[in-house]
Amino acid sequence: MKIKPILYRNSTKGKLFGVCAGWAEFLRQDVGVIRTLTVIFALFPLTAFITIFSYIVMAMMLDDKPTPVVVEVKKVDANKNPTEALDEIEELLQDLENKVMDVEHYVTSEPFEFQCKLWALKSE
Fold it and tell me: Does this model's pTM top 0.85?
């Protein structure tokens, strides 16, 4: 099964909104080439409006590239006394709870609801 590439904005590698960086990843090209072509097309009167308008629309409509979730696994030393081990476990659980609360906060936010509506429109 071949995985189809998805076009995202890549704001971590982007200069302005990450549209050119996203296209470069999508097309598997150097981002400098894509940026140069975009600037060249934006300078010519015949293509300037289309280029700038398209860039702005893509900046608003494309999803930002998701960042991978890094999970750090900590081991509790078995040779510690039980009180220290429980304190360390409690700290780990509190950290996990804070992360879950952050996810819950995002999932119940207006931007996420808006994003879900956009995804639903895209799938229709």
Answer: no
- As given in the structure block, the two tokens for residue 103 are 């996810």
Could you tell me the CA-to-CA distances from 19 to 43, 70, 71, 79, 91 in Å, in that order?
18, 25, 29, 52, 40
Local structure of residue 16 (DSSP, 8 states): S
Which pLDDT tens digit goes with each residue over 60-111?
888 888 777 676 766 666 677 888 878 888 888 898 898 888 888 888 888 7
- Structural tokens at position 38: 């975009």
Q: What does the alpha-carbon distance between residue 32 and residue 45 come to, in Å, rounded to a whole number? A: 22
HSE of 2 in the Cβ direction (CA atoms, 13 Å)?
2
What is the structure's pLDDT at 3? 62
